[in-house]
Amino acid sequence: MMANFSLKGKVALVTGASYGIGFAIASALAEAGATIVFNDLKQAFVDKGLAAYKEAGIAAHGYVCDVTDEDAVHALVQQIENEVGVIDMLVNNAGIIKRIPMHEMSAADFRQVIDVDLNAPFIVTKAVIPSMIKKGGGKIINICSMMSELGRETVSAYAAAKGGLKMLTRNIASEYGAYNIQCNGIGPGYIATPQTAPLREKQPDGSAHPFDAFIIAKTPAARWGVPEDLAGPAVFLASEASNFVNGHILYVDGGILAYIGKQP
Ligand code: NAP
Ligand code: GCO
Fold first, then answer.
1. 179 an active-site residue?
2. How far is the CA of 190 from the centre of ligand 2 (A)?
3. Residue of the CA atom closest to atom 48 of ligand 1
4. Where in the chain are the domains?
5. Mutate-to-test residue for ligand 2 from 21, 113, 118, 147, highest number of ligand atoms within 8 A of CB
6. Is the pTM of this model over 0.85?
7. pLDDT tens across the length of the chain (264 residues)
8. How far is the CA of 20 from the centre of ligand 1 (A)?
9. Cβ density class 115-150: b for 16+ within 10 Å, e for less
């Protein structure tokens, strides 16, 4: 049964994976045997990522590509197929957030979040599916969020995008399951990465950020997640062990979604 978790001989593209959650997921897929390909917006970040993968003993392939640019994405997929091999598994990880009260948010800012967090997973998935069909199957993992289920102040664009990504995940699963392509989501809870650093910053008086205490009280595990908490779930959804799991959002949140929160 454990052989079903092996990714040996497979090629994985993890978008936006120079660091953070993408880097942790790519590192886990590599440990399970996959060849890792990743992209980032700037060569400097690609180089930084390549050095980090090398330090971890992973011979990754890194490319500069803006996931919102359809022509650039198609060129990237072609280049990967020529230089590395057909993509067996795609992790749509690249993402941004803008924390602005909705009534103060510009339409341009709202559109940019939707573009990266929802339109780009559509663009990249559309680019890789034809070769997956030809190859007889594949795995797609969309990095959703607690905000695929819940809202909160200042994250309207992000919640709309991640809610849409949940349904895009289910629709890809519905439309391509017949081609032995499984599309699932991972919904991380609150994970300590650069994206959430502003929510964990110490206050001027040295006290903890109020959001920090809030998340601890809302999480049965009473801690922030770390990117490595996503490693096992990602390997499972990328492997043959999950061949009959399709259209599922696997929340890796320490129990936040199940818990009313600790009484203050
Ligand atoms: P992060 O630290 O902000 O890293 C995001 C990565 O995406 C960066 O490498 C960034 O590249 C890349 N990226 C952004 N826009 C891009 C674009 N247009 N084209 C290519 N790459 C792009 O974020 P994270 O915390 O690791 O989160 C990764 C994913 O998990 C995101 O989808 C996020 O929404 C989701 N998520 C995060 C949490 C959390 O608590 N951290 C929880 C749930 C879900 P640059 O460095 O060049 O900008
Ligand atoms: C926020 C956080 C969250 C996390 C994550 C939770 O401002 O509320 O950034 O959105 O990033 O998506 O699952």
1. no
2. 6
3. 41
4. 2-191+226-258
5. 147
6. yes
7. 899 999 999 999 999 999 999 999 999 999 999 999 999 999 999 999 999 999 999 999 999 999 999 999 999 999 999 999 999 999 999 999 999 999 999 999 999 999 999 999 999 999 999 999 999 999 999 999 999 999 999 999 999 999 999 999 999 999 999 999 999 999 999 999 999 999 999 999 999 899 999 999 999 999 999 999 999 999 999 999 999 999 999 999 999 999 999 998
8. 7
9. bbbbbbbbbbbebbbebbeeeeebbbbbbbbbbbbe
Among 53, 63, 158, 251, the one annotated catalytic: 158
Assign domain 2-191+226-258 to its CATH superfamily: NAD(P)-binding Rossmann-like Domain (3.40.50.720)
> What is the Å distance from ligand 1's center to 94 Cα?
5
